[in-house]
């Protein structure tokens, strides 16, 4: 059970990296849209960086998840729960802004994988305790 949980958490971490890549590809579209918008120079320079913050957020979230899945198994439960809650919040926020598109499908997939991973971890812990 614990091996399945680690694999699911690892796949979730990889999907977070894929989501970060997908999101980062939109930076050029943001820059192009800002060239025609009549905004202050500050906003024109700041918005692409702010856009990339979400991509980096996903990368940063994937690091402890992948480490817990492949290197530090004793971190797995708390890291999986934390990343699952944060990914769920990310999904809710992105869905409220953009509805369904590949990015929201990826985020909801990460959440589901992490929920299943936690279920298997709790089941393995219960079996180990008896």
List the main descriptive attributes of the protein structure presented here:
130 residues; mainly alpha; 5 helices
Summarize the structure.
By secondary structure, this protein is mainly alpha-helical. Helix content is 88%, strand content 0%.
Textual characterization of the structure:
The structure is a single chain. By secondary structure, this protein is an all-alpha fold. The protein has one domain. Helices cover 88% and strands 0% of the residues. The longest helix is centred in the middle third of the chain and has 30 residues. It is elongated, with a radius of gyration of 17 Å.
Q: How are the SSEs ordered, and which strands pair?
A:
Layout: H1 2-24, H2 27-36, H3 41-70, H4 76-98, H5 102-129
Secondary-structure element sequence?
Answer: HHHHH
* Helix proportion: over 70%
Which blocks of ≥5 consecutive residues have pLDDT under 50?
none
Number of separate domains: 1
Largest sheet: none
Shape: elongated
Q: Can you give the mean pLDDT?
A: 91
- Secondary structure tally, helices: 5
How big a fraction of the residues is strand?
under 5%
Distance between the termini: 15 Å
Helix vs. strand class: mainly alpha
Q: What's the alpha carbon Rg, rounded to whole Å?
A: 17 Å
Would you count the extended β strands for me? 0
């Amino acid at each position: 059970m614990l091996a399945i949980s680690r694999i699911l958490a690892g796949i979730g971490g990889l999907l977070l990296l894929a989501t970060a890549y997908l999101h980062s590809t939109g930076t050029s579209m943001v820059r192009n849209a800002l060239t025609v918008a009549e905004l202050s120079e500050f906003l024109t320079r700041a918005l692409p960086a702010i856009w990339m913050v979400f991509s980096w957020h996903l990368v940063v979230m994937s690091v402890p998840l992948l480490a817990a899945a492949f290197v530090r198994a004793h971190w797995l439960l708390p890291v999986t729960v934390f990343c699952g809650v944060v990914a769920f919040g990310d999904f809710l926020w992105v869905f409220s802004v953009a509805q369904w598109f590949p990015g929201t499908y990826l985020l909801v997939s990460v959440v589901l994988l992490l929920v299943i991973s936690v279920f298997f971890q709790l089941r393995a812990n219960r079996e180990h305790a008896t």
